[in-house]
Amino acid sequence: MCGPEQQRWLRAHLRELKGYVPGAQPGPQAIKLNTNENPFPPSPAVMSALAEITPRSLQRYPDPMANGFRQAAARLHRLEPDQIIATNGGDELLRLAVTSFVDPGHAIGVITPGYGVYSVLSAIHQARLSPVPLGPDWDLPVDTAARWNADGAQLALISNPHAPSGALFSLQAIERLAETFEGVLLIDEAYADFIDPELDHDATQLVARHPKVLLLRTLSKGYALAGLRLAYGLGQAALLAPMLQKTKDAYNVDAIAQTLGKAALNDSAYAKSTWVKIRRERVRLSRDLEELGLEVAPSQTNFVLASLPPPSRWGSARNLHMELHDTNIHVRWFDEERLRDRLRISVGTHAENTAFVDTLRILQQQARPHLRRPAHRSTGTAIR
After folding, report:
1. 3 state SS of 118
2. Partners of 153 in the beta sheet?
3. What is the three-class DSSP state of 73?
4. Which of 43, 86, 230, 336 could connect to 267 by a Cys-Cys bridge, CB 3.0–4.6 Å?
């Protein structure tokens, strides 16, 4: 923590900045449903590749362009390698987009509520936010692009499927944004792997049609590699070139991440088998929560957003969050507009989801007195 003496060296506009607050990382015995990780282990092919890492691969610098990984991603998405950029997690791609496409003092378009890192990055870069609140059903207002254009936004950041609601904006709605918005449109698809296949939602087709569209994909969620910190962007070669050649760190993705990421993408069939299980559990978890009286927003992600009915025998969502914490079950509560009466719950394994619902049922039956309690530090306003 910066004390008063250290604050005097800090850039003036950062002195009052509230940084991103990550979700809690409890011990291995916890039921962890708070940070949207894949509850299943990575592909065996990934673990085999890890075992084959050589001392020499750690002794030398990695490929600065991560070409092997980019080629694997290009094959997966039927693109060319120069339409892929590898990054140290999705947050690096967000930072690169802000650094590359936004002049300090200009605006960044966002929808609210949204991923907390967007606002933090804009504040660090001294860029204004141009926020557009989502509709009552988490729908995208038709004038979103017009409002961003009126604010002079040079970049817009939009998660689809949306976090924290889980809603999916249609390809038609996203394409209207791309056609109408005058700046670069970054579509954060961190949760795209969990979209129901029958919806036939594939935003990669937008890359060929729109030179200002940048897609973000990550291996943290669908590929169960959150600890690896590996993501990638998809866009036309001319859009990616400034980031590849000018603004990214020289060796931004380490040798281990490149090797394991390539193995994961080459064995995408294994990852897809976990997505099937997660979608199945998402349906079951939503049904069980609704049977307990909660309202669950339709989700195309690996989490659900559940609203507590007023009045609730659990008390407030904040209080229920803390009572679950006391039982070593961790979900997410946000002290933010439209979210204070809701909990975001990651989809776990069948056993984890069952234990969570059973605990909710017990807490409901106990109807414990609900005292005002301090929120756990991990709640914050950082959404992802």
Report:
1. helix
2. 107
3. helix
4. 43
Q: Which residues of the chain are modeled with pLDDT < 70?
A: 1-6, 367-384
Which residues in 83-134 belong to E strands, given as ranges?
A: 84-87, 107-112, 128-133
Residue 272 CB neighbours (<10 A)? 12
pLDDT value of position 14: 81
1-26 pLDDT, tens per residue?
556 666 778 888 887 778 777 778 88
Q: What is the DSSP string of 233-295?
A: EE--HHHHHHIIIIIS-TT-S-HHHHHHHHHHHHTHHHHHHHHHHHHHHHHHHHHHHHHTT-E
Q: Which two tokens mark 274? A: 């976990």
Please count the other Cβ atoms lying within 10 Å of the Cβ belonging to residue 175: 16
d(CA 224, CA 226): 6
Rounded Cα–Cα distance for residues 197 and 241 (Å): 32
- At 342 the three-state DSSP class reads strand
Residue type, 224: A
- CA 313 to CA 366: how far, in whole Å? 9
Q: In this predicted model, what pLDDT tens digit does every residue of 65-120 receive, in sequence order?
A: 999 999 999 999 999 999 999 999 999 999 999 999 999 999 999 999 999 999 99
Extended beta strands in 88-181, E state: 107-112, 128-133, 153-159
Task: Single out the residue of 267, 251, 353 nearest to residue 302, CA to CA.
Answer: 353
Residue 163 CB-half CA count within 13 A: 29
For residue 251, the model assigns a pLDDT of 97
Q: Hey, what amino acid is at 358? A: D
Phi and psi for 358 in degrees, rounded to 5? -60, -40
User: Tokens 């002079």 correspond to what residue?
Assistant: 152
Strands 295-296 and 107-112: unpaired
- Give the global pTM: 0.92
Q: What are phi and psi of 114, to 5 degrees?
A: -160, -175
Angle between helices 350-366 and 317-326 (to 10 degrees): 110
